[in-house]
Fold this sequence. Notes:
Blueprint: E1 8-9, E2 28-30, E3 43-46, E4 55-60, E5 65-70, E6 73-78, E7 81-84, E8 95-100, E9 105-112, E10 117-124, E11 131-132, E12 138-142, E13 147-151, E14 159-163, E15 166-171, E16 178-185, E17 191-196, E18 207-212, E19 221-222, E20 234-241, E21 247-253, E22 258-264, E23 273-274, E24 286-290, E25 297-301, E26 313-317, E27 324-325, E28 335-340, E29 346-351, E30 357-363
Antiparallel strand pairs: 1-8, 2-3, 3-30, 4-5, 5-6, 6-7, 8-9, 9-10, 10-11, 12-13, 13-14, 14-15, 16-17, 17-18, 18-19, 20-21, 21-22, 22-23, 24-25, 25-26, 26-27, 28-29, 29-30
Amino acid sequence: MLVRAARLRSTAGTTLVVAALTCTMGLATQLPAAAATGCAHPGIEVLDTLGGSGGRVMALGRGTIAAGSSAGVPAYWIGSTVIKVPLAARYSGYGTVNAINRHDLMVGTVYDDTTRANVAFSYRIGAARARILPGGSYADDVNDSGRIVGGGPFPADHLYVWHGTEVERELTVGPGFSFPRVSGINNAGTVIGAASDYQPGFPSSAGVGLVWPSGTTGPAVPLLPIDSSDDSGISYNPEDIDENGRIVGEKTSFWADGSYETYWDAPYTADATEVPGLPGYYNEGYFRAISPTTGLVAGEAPTSYYGDLPAGTAEIWTGSGPIRALPAPDADADSGASAVADNGDVGGYAVLASGEGVPVIWTCAAQQAL
């Protein structure tokens, strides 16, 4: 049985995940005993699915609880058993759980068949039905006090902190920024996100990471650096924040057509730090999640449609040293990581040799990283 740390969350920074993967149930890949030093059961656990088109673990909760999507709809797991998030009949479209706290409260996004738009929801395990969050088109994170962060539909781009189903605060950004989005909140109440300074007439403009420090009520503070040059094509995308205030994400270059693993440390007075990516991937990659207190980071290095490059791979970084790849059930097929726990477990997806994509958990990930 897997045992995880208390509160875990993960965000992929995506309004809606549409899983285009087919499913396999009940498979577990166990590493040799020699790899188990300091960990009882390192390996790759493949979780059950709802059938249909696959899924992905987006968040890890207390005990053996995980959450994400299966067959394209919001789902969670207790152990390897998959359970569909109960929603009203009108919300039968695609969606995902993006985060879960240590009190079994999960948040996410689902498609409303009636309005033909995405809506934000919350659900606590054991409740009869998920609740729709007012004004929201997505909910990306929730902390242990039940504060939920997300936003409304484009183009209004309102940003919210909900408590229960009430809007507790509307987050603001300074002048000159557009298309804002929030992506995370920690237990201190610090919120992270990003915005664009899009300039009409340019094919690409800069984007900047944002932070709303806990205990403040003003507009977001831009994370450094800020590239205000016209059409720079450089964007910074914070994805997750831990209890120490470390923010992880990526720097994206429109002109170089690449993304690079990046982090910021409190008090956010220094420029972002880039971490060299995996060899063989043009040093490209994404940091998707950081564990609450241990500093373990999970993410993925993408494959390329050009040249003879390896398949996309899940990766971890311990906060020092090199980024390392995680093993996959099929070394020639894609995998990716979206969630990480204080006990070292990592959640995500992997594609099997059959071509079937499955939600997976790497137990004791650092002990099996390549």
